[in-house]
Amino acid sequence: REYRDMGYLSDAMRNYLLRLGWSHGDEEIISPAQAIEWFDLKGINKAASRFDFDKLNHVNTHYMRAHLSRAEGEDALMSDLLALAAKDYGWSLSTDEDARVRRGLASLSERASTLRDIIEGADFLLAPRPIPIEPKAAKMLNESSLPVLADVAASLAAALPEESDWTLEAIETEIRRFAEEKDLGFGKVAQPIRASCAGKTKSPGIFDVLYALGRAESLARMADQET
């Protein structure tokens, strides 16, 4: 239970503990079916084992991403995440907030080793408007970048008029088209979007941020900077 509360998946713990005391060649990721097929007493380690959190994190990362590759696995991962978040972070999500986290799950997991990393990385998705802006991010919202932010928001709103139009691919296409049309470096467009929508300088990629937030929330957060 302690390791579960630290954000480790049961599949990852089972794999790691198996590998800690037994080996099958150089295999690091071993499914339960493979363990049953391959296990023999000859593979049990003779030397003392050493618990290594870096290796456990590596195995846990593998299983988080493996879960995300399957619909039923994503549901299981989300269930574990929500249970931990409700218990230790006080999450009680609305339908819209739940959808934001689900849409952001894949991109958040790219920077995460545990479920706690995902939960803590998702804080910007759940921040009430107007969202808090970190000091470094606030510097990206200045007299030269705010007009760019307003223009790209208007372009996105016009090009993608419905929530159903707000796909990852469509967002990327429109932002890159806008930057090229305005002869702006990508960073000049991306930085004020990240600052206004995530409130920080480090986040998943801006296309992922906008997709996870959804059309209405993204445009509203950008519009908040105009006032």
Which secondary structure elements does this structure contain, and how are they paired or packed?
Blueprint: H1 2-5, H2 10-21, H3 32-38, H4 53-68, H5 71-89, H6 95-109, H7 115-121, H8 123-126, H9 135-138, H10 145-159, H11 168-181, H12 186-198, H13 206-213, H14 215-224
Helix pairs in contact: 2-4, 4-5, 5-7, 6-13, 10-11, 10-12, 10-14, 11-13, 12-13, 13-14
What does this 3D model show about the protein?
By secondary structure, the chain is mainly α. Helix content is 65%, strand content 0%. Helix 4 crosses helix 5 (71-89). The longest helix is centred in the middle third of the chain and has 19 residues, at 71-89. It is elongated. The protein starts with a helix and ends with a helix.
Q: Please, what is the oligomeric state?
A: single chain
Q: Between the first and last Cα atoms, what is the distance in angstroms?
A: 47 Å
The helix/strand class is: mainly alpha
| Rounded radius of gyration (Å) | 21 Å
Instruction: Please tally the helical runs, counting DSSP H or I stretches of 4 or more residues.
Output: 14
Main sheet properties: none
pLDDT averaged residue by residue? 95
- Helical content stands at 55-70%
Order of helices and strands: HHHHHHHHHHHHHH
Quick one: how many beta strands?
0
Residues in β-strands, percent: under 5%
Q: Return residue spans where pLDDT drops below 50 for at least 5 consecutive residues.
A: none
Shape: elongated
Descriptive labels:
single chain, 227 residues, mainly alpha, 0% strand, elongated
